[in-house]
From TrEMBL:
Residues 37-106 form the POTRA domain. It comes from the Bacteria. Belongs to the FtsQ/DivIB family. FtsQ subfamily. This is Cell division protein FtsQ. The gene is ftsQ. It comes from Pandoraea horticolens.
Amino acid sequence: MWHNVRLLNAIASVLVALVVLAALAAGGHWLIQRPIFTLKAIQIDGDVSHINGPTLRANAVSRLKGNFFTIDLDATRAAFEAVPWVRHASVRRVWPNQLAITIEEYKPLATWNDGRLVSVDGELFAANLAEAEDEGKLPEFAGPPGSEKDVTARYYDFVKWFAPLNMKPEAVTLSNRYAWGVRLAGGVQLALGRERTPETLATRSRRFVQAYPQVAARWGNQIEYADLRYPNGFAVRAAGMRFLSEEQAKKLAATPVQKRDSRKPAVAQPAARQKRSQ
């Protein structure tokens, strides 16, 4: 081997290359550790109406490690996205010693039944309720686990369907049996039942909207509850009104008028019942 000039030259070239690479690595390591590359500033841009400096320092900045070259951008992004109100954060380096963070906040739409908030995109997130309601009380959503996007989508539908009445939904509920309920502004509670077809809820809502002016003319702001699950109409309960069972209604109808106690409050007798479409 020692008499093979070509082989010796190849080995020498490899050794020289290794030495050069080692020198470059050592020089590079020395260079990136220079104080000039120590992070001096973090620029925060984007939607930060609910986020302040102390919150970011306590929850994100204090967790950052490394300098301009060595900091882990994915870990940095995750640290900022762990801050309350932050939906998404994008991170980039700014030469020679800064980071630029662009933040997208959650936009609160409603409260959820477990104490969290629901965003306008139907995403659950944890944040301070008082901050979320600084411009007014939020609607209340409730439903089985994992149904927040469905409830949010239906809320937007209810806003559109009941807009002719100028009555915005204050609460939307999806029961464990997947029956829908809505409380409108003013306190009117509506039972809409299950969504049998894509048009079920729209049809029932439209029927109520069309008939409501006549119902309101009779009962005014006394209406407390409306059951929209009937196939051809709906039942209404108003303050001070109580409904009789069919048996009670028959007994009352059979009682001679002169024998009825005029001192007792009047009661509303419901029309012949129809089987509900749940």
